[in-house]
Amino acid sequence: MIEHAMAYLQKGFSIIPCGRDKKPLLEWKEFQHRRATPEEVQGWYEKNPDANIGIVTGAISGICVIDIDSEIGRENIMPYLLQDDAYITPTVNTPRGGSHIYFKCPDVEIGNNAGLIPGSDFRANGGFVIAPPSCNAQGKHYEWVNDLQTPLKELPRDYLKRISVPVKKVYESVNLFQQGRRDEDLFHIANIMAKGRANPNEIKQVLTILAQNCNPPYPANEINAKVVSAMSRTEKSDIKVIDEVRKYCMQTEGSFTTNAVYDALGARDNKFKATIRQALKTLKSEGVLGKSGDKDGTYRRIDTSAENIDFLNAIVNPIDIKYPFGIENLVHTLPKNIIVVAGVSNAGKTAFLLNIVAKNMYKHNIHYFSSEMDASEMKLRLEKFSGIDLSQWKFYPKERVSDFDQVIQPNDINIIDFLEVYEDFWKVGGMIKDIYNKLDQGIAIIAIQKNKQSEFGLGGGRGLEKARLYINIDPGKIKIIKGKNRVDDDINPDNMAINFKLVQGCQFKAQGDWVKELPK
């Protein structure tokens, strides 16, 4: 361990010895401002040869770290990391299945936060992370995925905006924390942190820093009262937690665990978790939930409603719709079907959807709801389609960023490009269900973002529940994850994939045939 510790020190990192419980083995505040000498490190590891290695984050080491500790955290963070290839930066797998993602420490004075983005923490000035090859109490190691030979990337711009607004810029922009409004502003910050489930010590620490930077400085002996008041107000609002838990349950198909609710609602402290458990018990007593199986903490929604199935008057003829790569030869599309197209950023989702328009616009009414293209960008894209003059395009393009269920045309083809979700990804299933409920004889083709190497788009399996056809698009490959209505009973389209090249951003060229892949 001492060899690894010395190597980190030589790279310019400030290091500290830590126990298997991740706690520093010494008073480490001074090492936030100076790096230990080789002699000091030698002494630490002579005393504790198996000590873990902590790297102090922030300006002293030139790094900051995003700490992802759950799948919901990974889903919440990935949209930021996909910007500017920010994800290709030194990365560590943690013993409990999380990730430490290293970035250059920004020039702005930036500290730590815990759970500001649910399922993840951030370590910068005043923080530290455990570094490989350290291990936890169970003997499981921290391991590099991309080691320090990988160049450090800048922290994604949108992530930095989300987590930090420097105090100096706040002064310049809206004159916060000035004489006459210091009290109100500090209490507002305390309330926000309390609602975000920060503990009293964290709130006090932040308020103390802000109080010192007020103009003039705010009395330190009055901070405790603000913390107590903010915590009290949040406790009174805990009754609202049951509304969030109820909403989660109503949008969930099948069984789910208490831990899944924790992750979805960003519950980190024990008090918030206890409130959620009580809400689940309340919903169970109301008959909304029931126990699923023999395992404690696993629930299922009880729904006693059931609509009559009018099979005598049902329309069974597949809709005559064409897809790229002849997907219609593998999977039928029936009235009221949901088709999900989950794709990595810039892999070809929009090109795929516009090709559906081009192949079907003369035999169907197609409504195309775009959340990111304005008129000029759409014109540039459509001009690239050879053989189709701009005046020949026959569809209804519209700008829309949310609440798509309110604009669905029930008997036409509806294309949504794309379903924007940046947090609370568990709501994806509910959004798709709302769209499904508005359909009659028509269909909805819904694009969602997908992380690299992920089997599902954002929202995980929630997007799969209502979809009769679920397609993944990765760079150079399209894969059918689910094809419910087979054209040929002897050919199961699930996990069939085809490679492609995308020419001029609009023309798909198949590279080979459809082949069966083993499921992940």
How would you sum up this structure, described in words?
- Residues 165-173 have low confidence and may be disordered.
- This protein folds into four domains: 2-163, Signal recognition particle alu RNA binding heterodimer, srp9/1, CATH 3.30.720.160; 167-237, no CATH class; 239-301, Arc Repressor Mutant, subunit A (Orthogonal Bundle), CATH 1.10.10.10; 314-516, 3-Layer(aba) Sandwich (Rossmann fold), CATH 3.40.50.300.
- The two termini are 36 Å apart.
- With 520 residues, the protein is α/β, with parallel strands linked by helices.
- Helix content is 29%, strand content 21%.
- The protein has helices at 2-10, 38-47, 71-81, 157-163, 167-174, 182-195, 200-212, 223-236, 241-250, 258-265, 270-285, 349-360, 375-383, 428-438; strands at residues 14-18, 52-56, 63-68, 91-93, 99-104, 113-114, 120-123, 128-131, 143-146, 153-154, 255-257, 289-291, 298-301, 338-343, 366-370, 396-399, 413-417, 443-449, 467-474, 477-483, 496-503, 507-516.
- It is built from 14 helices and 22 strands.
- Strand 4 and strand 5 form a beta hairpin.
- The strands form four sheets. The chain has a nine-stranded mixed beta sheet. Strands 3, 4, 5, 6, 7, 9 and 10 form a seven-stranded mixed beta sheet that branches.
Topology (SSEs and partners):
Layout: H1 2-10, E1 14-18, H2 38-47, E2 52-56, E3 63-68, H3 71-81, E4 91-93, E5 99-104, E6 113-114, E7 120-123, E8 128-131, E9 143-146, E10 153-154, H4 157-163, H5 167-174, H6 182-195, H7 200-212, H8 223-236, H9 241-250, E11 255-257, H10 258-265, H11 270-285, E12 289-291, E13 298-301, E14 338-343, H12 349-360, E15 366-370, H13 375-383, E16 396-399, E17 413-417, H14 428-438, E18 443-449, E19 467-474, E20 477-483, E21 496-503, E22 507-516
Parallel strand pairs: 5-10, 14-18, 14-19, 15-16, 15-17, 17-18
Antiparallel strand pairs: 1-2, 2-8, 3-5, 3-7, 4-5, 4-9, 6-7, 11-13, 12-13, 19-20, 20-21, 21-22
